[in-house]
Design goal:
Layout (H helix, E strand, L loop, with lengths): L8 E6 L8 E6 L7 E11 L4 H5 L15 E8 L11 E4 L10 H4 L23 E5 L3 E3 L6 H19 L8 E5 L5 H10 L3 E6 L5 H7 L3 E4 L5 H7 L3 E6 L4 H7 L3 E9 L11 H5 L4 E4 L5 H14 L5 E5 L3 H10 L5 E5 L1
Parallel strand pairs: 8-9, 8-11, 9-10, 11-12, 12-13, 14-15
Antiparallel strand pairs: 1-2, 3-4, 3-6, 3-15, 4-5, 5-7
Helix pairs in contact: 3-4, 3-9
């Protein structure tokens, strides 16, 4: 007499091929390999960068693929050779999905610029599923003072703005402008305020002023009604402008709002060029710098700072079964301000 052993299964939302609709699938729960950890996913943010997976913007993505790089959950199983993580420990995974540890950048400790960096939800299946497997070096420890729904967006949108600001060269009391009040911007304003900067929020429409001030902005500039450059220069020019809205045109228009030694920190991804003349940079010693998300260590700094400072994302939640609806909501630009899938 033969005995049938039931295989444990889970639900996942995947992209079967570039540009295709999401499909909800029941699949076998994966087993972690050497150096890997299996995570029981509790929450996963829906980020605009998930478009890269959904639409096949990177030719080397293998399909079908499960998106999601703002993952919060608990360790469910350990592969061989994994330490010091333990089953039941709260962990997350962000954009930085692993590094090789051997390239020149890794040997210098610059893991976020690893030449063979893995990206969660792109290099391997991400968090739009009940269980996922990730390299142990990609794990982020989540403190108990943050719930999963809050922690998830902080693992990408949060660390992106936190890292850019703390590495921008701005000091407490400096004028820091945040362009955009969306998913990145509403976190950037909060972090900038908690860092002790004089914060100028730049949006479009007078109806956003109250909200910007509630987030911690000292000044609100309505770019639809006035010149943001002139308003910034009235205050001596910005030491830093954090560009969060993915519009190269609006970034270009703000460069002259920088003060001496001012820096435009670019975190909103757009594929159009930012236009700047050498004279704009030379006179006043200004600069334009991009800033990537961050390493797991950076994410842990972000989570701890957010926990005790009170910085929190504003989220709309959808169950995993409505991943397509949540993705469409994010893509519409009407979400306030991060969409999070719950398991």
């Amino acid at each position: 007499m033969s005995t049938t052993v039931a295989t444990a299964t889970m639900i996942l939302a995947r992209v079967p091929r570039p540009g295709a609709d999401f499909e909800l699938v029941e699949a076998e729960i994966p087993a972690p390999g050497p150096g890997e950890v299996r995570i029981r996913v509790r929450a996963c943010g829906v980020c605009h960068s998930d478009v890269l997976t959904k639409e096949g913007s990177l030719p080397w993505i293998q399909y079908p693929r499960v998106p999601g790089h703002e993952v919060a959950g608990v360790v469910n199983a350990l592969g061989p050779g994994v330490a010091p993580w333990k089953e039941g420990q709260r962990v997350g995974v962000g954009w930085h999905g692993g590094h090789d540890g051997t390239c020149r950048e890794c040997r210098r400790g610059d893991f976020r610029n690893c030449r063979n960096q893995k990206i969660t939800g792109i290099s391997y299946d991400g968090g739009y599923q009940q269980y996922m497997v990730a390299p142990a070096e990609a794990l982020v420890s989540i403190p108990d003072g943050l719930d999963d729904v809050d922690a998830a967006p902080l693992l990408d949108a949060g660390v992106t703005t936190f890292n850019a600001l703390r590495r921008s060269g701005a000091m407490p009391g400096d004028l820091v402008a945040v362009q955009g009040l969306g998913g990145l911007g509403h976190l950037g304003i909060q972090f900038a305020s908690k860092f002790g900067y004089e914060v100028a929020a730049i949006g479009r429409g007078s109806d956003k002023e109250t909200f910007a001030r509630q987030l911690g902005a000292n000044v609100y500039i309505d770019g639809a009604a006035t010149s943001a450059v002139e308003e910034l220069q009235k205050r001596g020019g910005a030491r830093v402008i954090l560009a969060t809205a993915p519009s190269s045109k609006s970034m270009t228009e703000l460069i002259d709002g920088l003060g001496p030694n001012g820096r435009l920190m670019v975190v909103g991804a757009d594929f159009a060029p930012i236009e700047v003349t050498p004279a704009q940079l030379i006179f006043g010693s200004r600069s334009v710098q991009g800033s990537a998300s961050g390493t797991p260590a950076d994410s842990e700094d972000t989570l701890r700072f957010a926990m005790w400072s009170g910085v929190r994302p504003m989220v709309e939640t959808y169950p995993l079964e409505k991943a397509a609806e949540g993705y469409a909501r994010m893509l519409s630009g009407r979400a306030r301000f991060r969409v999070v899938l719950t398991m």
